Amino acid sequence: MEPLSHAFKERSVWALQDETLQVALNRAKDGFAVKRAKAVGALPEFESLRDRAVDIKNHTLENLDHYLERYADAVERSGGKVHWASSAEDARRIVVEICQASGARMITKGKSMVGEEVGVNGALEEAGFEVVETDLGEYIIQLAHEPPSHIIVPAVHKTRGQIADLFHQNHQKYGLTRKLAEVPEMVNEARQVLRDKYLAADVGITGANFLIAESGTSVIVTNEGNGDLTCSLPKVHIVTAGIEKVVPTAEDASTLLRLLGRSATGQDMTTYTTFTTGPKRSGDTDGPEEYHVVLIDNGRTTMLGDQFREMLRCIRCGACMNHCPVYGAIGGHAYGWVYPGPMGSVLTPLAVGLKEAGNLPNACTLNGHCAEVCPVRIPLPDLLRTLRHREYQLRLGLKPMRWGLAAWVWFTTHPRIYRMGTRVQARMLALLAGRKGRFRRMPLAGSWFRGGRDLPAPQGETFMAVWQRRQRGKG
Amino acid sequence: MNPGADSVGAGAGSGADARPRVALFVTCLANIYRPNVGLAAVALLERAGCTVEVPLTQTCCGQPSYNNGDLDGAAKTARQTIEAFEDFDYVVAPSGSCGGMLRDFPRLFASEPGWQQRARAMAEKTYELISFLTDIRGMTSVDAAYPHRVTYHDSCHGLRALGIKEQPRRLLGTVRGLELAELADSEICCGFGGTFCVKYPEISGRMVSDKAAAINATEAEVLLGGDLGCLLNIAGRLGREGGRVRVYHVAEVLAGMADVPGLGDPRQPKGGS
Ligand code: SF4
Questions:
Q1: Total number of domains in chain A
Q2: Does residue A283 belong to any structural domain of this protein?
Q3: Which residue in the set A391, A408, A452 is minimally distant from B237, CB to CB?
Q4: Residues A293 and A428 in one domain
Q5: Is residue A342 part of a domain?
Q6: pLDDT tens track for A120-145
Q7: Chain A residues closer than 8 Å to B197 by CB
Q8: pLDDT bracket for residue A444 (50, 70, 90)
Q9: What is the spatial distance between Cα B44 and Cα B179, in angstroms, rounded to a whole number?
């Protein structure tokens, strides 16, 4: 996907003005946060689970080459094939080639964020395949030709009315002409359409929540069961996964699973947890004939070697965006690429460059709510600040900001001048504000007022001035 | 002026009494906008048995630089602060945000072990005002009256970096006549975020208007909080909406010094304190 992150400012303003979007966002607001809080509250060992998860992830990342090899060996032993993709381009090419070699026409897909990251759908469609998303949310945004706006609930930005319209437009060709109003009806209609697609599909592509090194198993969680049908019905199953998804054992995967559902949607466990290992064996009643895993690097080994390694612990639960007030105000599309919210504001600049995405790490109040809820304790605000530092070093930020900061540092390291300067400033502002005690506007400070707020005026004297006078009086 | 002295003592004596010597880091916002917060902090600290001093060479905690990627600039400001404050028993700031920044100083000196050592030593004795009063000085009540319905906003840095949540509520509970109405979403950011509020004013504006709506829903007469940045932002929004809610720093109420106009309120005619 072509990044649009450079236009974050404009896009965020549009988002704030888009009334339909605001309805959808308001409806979603707090829902997940409240559910998560409930689920976490009901599990006394949640904090110790988090510690264990951090240990598991750190240990695996420290020995990533070892566990990836173990995983790949186990996949091959079970009859599957492992492909290594170092870039997004590699990943697209490999997936297209597998589909072409199998003589496929129809491809079903389970939800996969790494698939979005490398642009699998576009490549497949360009190569002439019909691609159908089977996760309900992904299906909706596919019909709307939009990228996901959330990593767990990709169509969270859509209202019920918009979805009804989309179905009405797109399902006529299947003889489904009635305009629906209720959610269960819509779910049923989508199921009906998708059922035929499952049966007709030649290839099923899924992501992976975890890859288990000891057994070569991939794990996906869904609430709709679409993952099962996508990986077991077609004769070819392709798993696309980032290399950081590997964990040593099934036990480790289950520790992380206990955190994932609770952090994401407040569920103790998602409705379906699907384990797949290799192709169908002789005697198996179902399963694919071919089983491929595409292991995708796409910048991850670079992260492994620098200050952003901790970001590779991410299990894509979405809790950080569910608790982010900026995400809550503008939704996911404003961020302009695949991953929105706090985790996206770290990942996007690393993937598409700070020049393109420099706004994202800055568009954050560093309030810390994301880090507080991240199940694998990723210090997201610190990573965002590190990106700001990198941006500063590369001189990518706005020049006036740089000058302003330099001036402030000089001012703060000359205390006598600082005391005088602040004294004058406080006095002047208080005088200018007069009786009213606040400003409704002020030249050169327009940005403050563009936030729809007044500026309270100072009391008039600085604290230092009051204090010094008081001390003199005492002496 | 005391020759050679950069700080001016306010305590009874500077001799060998057991009162801890506390240096007040007043914060740049309180210094410029709200000296009353600094005075309230001094009063509370003295009531908690401390000798309060105010190093005159103090300026800013360095967050504007630190949070905008200028780590060298932040380190320069920090050195200045460390030199001014390191000789005291404690460093106390009426702000979780600035107090949290002072505690983060060691991070600025990863490649300067000497300074890092000094930064760490200072960070270890640095506290936010209210939590210092309760957790370190064991203050359990205040002698103040404030017969109003108030609500409280938990500023993010104090809440998440320093664990400040119960402490102000405990002390507010002992203020005569004060009724605390809890704010829905009191832990959600108000949208200030330092330079964030001017870099992304539209997003910031949405966040603070959500905050204002939650405050109005409590039907409180007064909003309190522990960080002037957030309070200026919220008071600015409440003022723009033309509402009646007044805004004070929690220290002003706890010290019994909220008898001046609130943030952004019309000034009293001469004669008030
Ligand atoms: S950064 Fe943490 S909270 Fe955000 S998606 Fe990843 S694991 Fe979840």
A1: 2
A2: yes
A3: A452
A4: no
A5: no
A6: 999 999 999 999 999 999 999 999 99
A7: 447-448, 451
A8: confident
A9: 21
The pTM of the full predicted model, rounded to 2 decimals, is: 0.94
Helix axes A160-171, A183-200, angle to 10 degrees: 40
DSSP B269: P
Q: How do strand A217-222 and strand A210-212 relate by DSSP bridges?
A: antiparallel
Residue B5 has a pLDDT of 39
| Minimal-distance CA residue to ligand 1 atom 4 | A320
Q: Is the pLDDT of residue B269 over 70?
A: no
- The ipTM is 0.94
Whether A292 and A439 share a structural domain: no
Token reading at A80: 């599957």
* Domain pair B5-135 / B140-254, same fold: no
Looking at A9-13, A385-389, A471-475, which range is the least confident one? A471-475
Cβ neighbours of residue A78 closer than 8 Å, sequence gap 6 or more: A215, A216, A277, A278, A279, A291
Confidence band for B7, pLDDT divided at 50, 70 and 90: very low
- Write out chain A residues lying below 8 Å of B37, CB-based: 463
Residue-range definition of the domain harbouring residue A427: 400-474
What pLDDT score does B13 carry?
41
Atom of ligand 1 nearest to the CA of A151: 5
Tell me the pLDDT band of A2, cut-offs 50, 70 and 90.
confident
pLDDT, residue A225, reads 84
Cβ A456–B263 below 8 Å, yes or no? yes
Pairing state of beta strands A203-206 and A106-109? parallel
- Domain final position from A301, A317, A341: A301
Domain-terminating residue out of A252, A276, A301: A301
What is residue A474's predicted lDDT score, i.e. its pLDDT?
Answer: 79
* Cβ pair B191, B233 in contact under 8 A: yes
HSE value, Cβ hemisphere, 13 Å, CA-based, for A21:
17
**Nearest beta carbon to residue B56 from set A415, A438, A459:** A415
Evaluate if residue B17 carries a pLDDT over 80: no
pLDDT, tens digit (0-9, with 9 covering 90-100), for A366-387: 999 999 999 999 999 999 999 9
Domain covering B140-254 assigned CATH 3.40.50.2000 in the classification:
no
A111, A194 Cβ separation under 8 angstroms: no
Residue range B7-18: average pLDDT? 46
Spell out which residues of chain A touch residue B64, defining contact as CB-CB under 8 Å. Answer: 405, 408
In the predicted model, is pLDDT for residue B76 greater than 60?
yes
Closest partner CB to A408 (pick from B2, B65, B187): B65
B5-135, CATH topology level: Glutathione S-transferase Yfyf (Class Pi); Chain A, domain 2 (1.20.1050)
Distance in angstroms (rounded) separating the CA atoms of residues A196 and B99: 61
What's at B234, amino acid-wise?
Answer: I
Sequence ranges of the domains in chain B: 5-135, 140-254
Distance from CA of B145 to the nearest CA of A (A): 23
Asked whether residue A309 is domain-assigned, the answer is no
User: Does A323 map to a domain?
Assistant: no
Residues A410 and A284 in one domain: no
CATH for A200: 3.40.50.10420
